[in-house]
Structure formats: structure tokens, C-alpha cells
Amino acid sequence: MADLVGDGRDSRVGAAPNGQAANYRGAGARPAGEGADKAAPGPGGAADSRPGANGRAAENAREAGQLEGEVRVQVLTTPAKEAALIADHLRRAHLTHGVPWSRMAVIVRSVPLSLAPLRRALLAAGVPVRQPPADVPLARRRGAVWMLLALRAVTAGDPTSVRHPRPIAFTADDALDLLAGPLGGADQISLRRLRRGIRRSVLELGYPDRVRDGDTEIDAGEHAETAADEQNSSETHRDGGATDGRRSAAGARPRDGAVSGESVGTVREVEFDPDPDAARFADLDRSSAEILRDLLVGVGNRAILERLTEVESAPLRRVLKAMGRARKVRRDGGGLEDVMWGVWTASTLEKRWVGQSERGGAVGMQADRDLDAVVGLFEAAASYVDRLPRATIEGFVEYLEQQEIPQDNAPVTDPGEAVTICSAHAAAGREWDTVAVAAVQEGIWPNLRPRGTLLGVEDLVDLLAGVGGSGEKVSRAAPLLAEERRLLLVACSRARRSLLVTAVESVTGDQDLVPSRFLAELDADAADGQPGRIPPPVDPGRALAMHALIAELRSAACDPETAPERRMRAARQLARLARAGVRGAHPDDWYGTAELSSSDSLWDTEDGAISLSPSTVDQLKTCPLRWALERHGGGDGENPHALKGNLVHTLVQALAGQVSEDQVKQALVKAWKKVDPSARDGENWHSRAELRRTETMVDTFLAWLRNTRDELTAIGVEVPVDCVLPARGPGEQPVRISGRVDRVERDPLGRFVIVDVKTGKTPISKQAAEEHAQLATYQVAAAEGALGEGEPGGARLVYVAKPSTKEGATQRMQPPLDAEGIDTWRGVIHDAADASKGPSYLAMRNDGCRHCKVAGSCPVQDTGRQVTD
């Protein structure tokens, strides 16, 4: 520095040691006055090297009334309350004091840890936030991904694209992504509905005479593929159409080949002779995603589309409309930009996203990002075409998808008035009127994690500064702590008028949250030379936001323990807001206050007998609400274990006939590739292990079959059960029991023994088996003559996944029901029929609650309890 000054007569050097926090390239916080003696000779020197020498100017300005500042240090109990307090602080500064949004900032120590939750809280409170530059390549941004997928679909169906050196592939997964993206607009329910409609249409085209309600005859492999493809349909009962997920994969219909009086479902391979109609069977062995892929690229069977309902096909038709426009432009000789413009105009996304952007909020910010991505995509296309006049769509898509680093383009959308969220290092050299320093937590601020450089520059700096001798190890904790303290002071000094410093103190989350030790140093009430204190946690109170005001007024107006005068005042204020058109102020907008949409029962007394399956009786006895919700679409249906269980039941049926063990296992291996798609490449170790486990189940059943022939004699498999229990009295309905039994055997006394094959790994207790409603219902049906002449001789649950050295497979027994037991269970069955009527259903806590799929709608569970309860 002295050499640079040279012989200059008037040279001044300034430094702010307390604001130095990065130690970049050996920079330190040593006072600049240390080098004054090396300056050029003359009367000059170190004018002042004391920290805060110019602080008097600020004090004089404050005394003159030019500055009115405040410093608040707040500790909250949760990160959500911390974010809400910061949002309220900024809103009050804007609405009360007129501070522009652009003159506010939120400063944090770690942007990756704090940016996302703070951004969500500020946007939810109506605080505009400045968007950061894109940190991902253009091809991975939501607003551009769908366009690139559409371009890939256009080129994949063009015969001329195969001459490209590297043709673009458009896979089945790409088709699903395009349908679920902004262009198709399909949510999970819509996409599932579409895929089920595709599968139904394929079956109707391939087997028009075999697709009948309740009697779909599809072979084991075909049914397994259909179920694996959908993974979402209601689990079909073997015993009457309820949902216990154990229906035979063979369709539960007797086939030819049964012997010894048994009704056996056989496993056979379907082979089609080459004929002119063979093409209509081509889609039967393909997943719905592959069929959708063909339709989108323009090579699929349009007859499938015509068989879909309007609701089912809506997402697909939206995408096909854009694809049709793009293909027409390309056939007419249009280039890359013309094809992209055709897709964009046909998508009608511009109107939607512009409207969302104008409304603001979180949705508006996402719309801004999407629009920026689209504009960036068109700019990238224009630049690509300028560089390569003969550019192709394939080359452009490949060029973008291979980018790993985002392009250095400024955001297209003007941020306007918005709050800045940045790190303490990024805030250096800048200032705002209102600043909130957030997440001042121990472990985050200060961050005492050791850090250094590859060449050990910090050691060289210490050596030159005389800190430690050569080869001596110097503690890094104290310098790091001092650096972190200076960094916090830098962040706090960015505020001109208002400063808010926040932290969280909580021991109830995933980890303990402790306020930083630095908060005590910000205590303005601490005496000189005495340590300060960290303030206790506080409640942030009601935010200065309309939704918070309405919530407080609603709480006061609806609370019966509130004073009548206060309730009346709250009601009057709500009425004023409602007349002004404020959303949420009118009781019609309140959740939980609307009348029930319907109070009708599921069935009327004029409908005749109530039809129940034995498994439905079991479900209604366990939890009527769960039965009602799952029966009417509450279950997600994605249960691969139930699908594999269906396959095991099919093979068990086959073993009861003339099909040999080797043939059954060959059929298992063939069907497994359709049941478990991951098995198709042959490299998935988990799939191989599951296949071996399934083969073991077959062996276990064979062992049980051999070990029980001395006491049991087979009558049939998948035996239908159908009987009617008369009404108990006036005003009640008869109950029809309908279903299918896995196996019916006879004991040495000639009594019927019900056998239900289970594929679960954990058998129920012996007491639970004695009270098993499904088995008891089968015994009641047997007593009513549903199985022919004879008395019930008990029932058994056979767990083929749990081998037993004595019996071959683990069994759970239910003793034969006597006359009194049959009467008791008749009453249980009638009670279950009454419980199925509705419109109210009882929620009952039981062991199945741990894996209930509809717990989110159950008032017994915390996750399902209504907010109005």
C-alpha cells in the first residue's frame, strides 16, 4: 500500500475492521493503523484507528430528530411463529409507516436452511418477495419441461426423425409426465381415471364378448398385468364384491379340468392363432402408459380414444390438441420457433399464467417463474437458430437437456416492489430502512465448524501476523467466533431505522432449537461490563392481516364463554366485512358450518334383502367408517402385496386339480414378470427374493395339503356361497350372504370345514380366530344350507407364508358353532347390515388403525379430526 501511495501529498486510506468477516485471500480484521508507520514520510499518519470513531455523527443526528430507530430482539417457540412475526413486522412497516417493500430485507446466516420457509410465510402473508435467479438449467424448470416433452412427442412420431443421428426417445413415463404437467393438467385422480379408461377400452376392443360386469374372465397372467397396470382399482372380493383384496387372479370362475368333484380355476397360457383380427389383441399385453405414449406420438389406435368418456379423456384431448397444431405447422414447413409457437398458442397457458401472475401471492410467483421459463425457452430457441440456420427440433432439445449449468440470464419478470431475502455476506455494503435478521440460532450463528483452504493460507497469515511459531497448532475456535460475531454486526448494521432480530427456543421438534449466545450481547438493558440476557419466548400475537382478523372475530363470535357484549361486537364487525365483500367473513364461507349435502341412506327398506359378503361383515364389525370410506373410493388401491396374494390364491386353486407342481411354478415365473414390472430385466434382487418367497408359499400349501388329508377331505375350491337370513322382526330387512370360500373340506364326522388361505406373514391370535367374523359368517351360511346338506364343522385360517413343522402351514382354528353360537352370530350379521345403511358411520379404534389408508378422514385419529371439533 505504501508503494502505491508513493510520493502523494494527500493520501487517505479507510478501513472498517469490525465489518470484515470473510477473511478472503488472507484478509484480516487488524486495524488499518498498523501500517501507518510504513506510509510515505510526511506529517500524516493514522488519523484515527479506533472503532466507532464516527459514531458521534449518528448520535448528533438522533438528538436532532433526524433518525428514529428501534431494535427488537424476539425469541419464539416455533419456526412457524418466527416466520409469522417477521411477516407481520414487515407488513406493519409497510402499512403503518409507509416503508416501500424494496427498502426492506430479511437477512439470514444460511440461505439454504432458511430461504424456503421464510419465502412461504412471507408470500402467505401477502408480502412480495424478490425472486432469486434460477439455480437449475432451463430444461429442468417447470415452465419449460412440458414444452420440451411436447417437442419430443412431436418428433418421436415423425417418420423423418429416424434419420436423425440420435433420434429422440419419448417413453411411457414421458407421456405420463406430459399429461400431468401444465399442458395436460391431470392430477393423480384424473390420471388414474384416464389409465383405467384406457385399460377398459383395450379390453372392450380385444374381448368384446368377455368384458361383463362381475364376470370378467381373464387368465392369470392377463389379470395380473391389468391389476399391476392400474394399481388403483378397488380391491375385488372373492367373497361377494366387497374389498378384502384377495380375489383370485384367475377370475374366480371354474374351468374345465376339475376332478373329484372339485371346482378348480386352472392356469393356462392364451395363444392366438395368426388371423386378420390379431391386431386387435396387440394392446392387451401392454401397459396403459405405453398405449398413451403411442396416442401422443400419433401412432396409437384412435378407437381407444373414442371409447373414453369425456371426463376420462379431457387431459389427453388437451395434449392431443397441442400436438396436432404442432404437427400441422411442421408439415407446412415451419421451423423450430414456429412449432414451439404452435404448441404455446394451442395450450392456452398464457391466459392462465398471466392471470395468476397479476393476482400475486405464492401462485402468482410460481406463474412468474413459469412465464420466465417460457420466455427463456423462446430466447434460447432464437439464439440456437441464429447460430445454426439449419437447426432441427431434435438438436435443440438435445442441446438444452444436456446443459448442467443454468444460463446467466437475468429474470424476465420485473420484480418491482419486493422484499429482499439474502445472506449476511450478500448484505455487506447494502442497507435498507427495515431489516429482520432471522434464525439467529446456536450452531447456525455462530457456525464454528472448522474451515480452511487447500494451501493453508490461514496458517501463513497467522505466521506473518506473529500468531504462533512455526509448526505450532493454533486454536481456530476463537477467531471463528470473533468472525461470526462481526458477521452478525454486519447484518444488524444494514438497518437504517428498524431492526428485528429473531430466534427460536424449542425442545419439542426433531431437534432442540437454542437461541444464539450473541443475542445476549444485543441486550440494550445490560449494564456496562455485565453480560446481557436472552429474552424469554413470546407470543407474536395477531398478525396485521385480514385472515388473522377474521379468525379472531370468528373465535370471539362463536365462543359461548365469551361475554355477550364482546360476541355482539365481533358479529357486527364480521357483518361489516361481509358487506364489503371480504372473503371468509360471511358464515357461508366458514368451514364446518354448511349443512350436510345429503342425509339419505345407502339403501332403503324397499330395496329388499341387504347383500353382504363375509369379509364385509368382518369389516363392519371392526370399523364401519373405514368400510364406508374404502368401499367408496377412500383406498388408494396401490397394494402390490395384495396383487401378489391374488396370484398365490390362483396357484393354490390350480394345485387342487390336475395341474402338476412343476406346471404351477412355471406359470408363476411367467406371470411374475407382469405382477412385478421390476422383474423384467432379471437384475432386481428384491424381485427375485419375492419370487422365491412366493414359491415357498406354494410349497407350504402343498405341505399343509398332504398333512391334513387324514382328517380332511376336499369338497371344492372357490365354492360359491349364497343364502338369505330372514329379518329379525318388523321394520328390519333380511340379509343375503354371498361370497366364495377358498376351500370347503369335510371332517371325519361329515361336517363342513371352511378353509381360508392367507398370505400375510403374521398370524392372528388364537382368541381372535375364535371371534373371527368372516369365518363365523361362513359357518352361519353353512348352517343355512348354503353348502348343501350338512352342519358346520368349524373353520380354519391357513397362513401359507408361515410354515409349520407339524401341520405344514400355521393354522388358526375356529371351533364349530352350536345353535346358540349361530343365533349370536346371526345377530352380529344383522347388526352389520344395519351399520352399512348410514348415513352416519361409527369410527372404532382397533389394531388396524396403524395401517389404515383412510386415517386422514377418521375423527378418532389426530390426523383426521376436524378443525371444528
UniProtKB/TrEMBL annotation:
Residues 25-58 have a biased composition (Low complexity). GO terms for molecular function: 3'-5' DNA helicase activity; ATP binding; DNA binding; exonuclease activity. Pfam families: PDDEXK_1, UvrD_C. Keywords: ATP-binding, DNA damage, DNA repair, DNA-binding, Exonuclease, Helicase, Hydrolase, Nuclease, Nucleotide-binding. The keyword DNA repair applies. One of its GO terms (cellular component) is cytosol. The keyword Methyltransferase does not apply. InterPro entries: DNA_helicase_UvrD-like_C, DNA_helicase_UvrD/REP, P-loop_NTPase, PDDEXK-like_dom_sf, PDDEXK_AddAB-type. Residues 1-12, 235-247 have a biased composition (Basic and acidic residues). Residues 1-66, 224-271 are annotated as: Disordered. It comes from the Bacteria. PANTHER family: DNA 3'-5' HELICASE, UVRD / RECB / PCRA DNA HELICASE FAMILY MEMBER. This is UvrD-like helicase C-terminal domain-containing protein. It comes from Nocardia terrae.
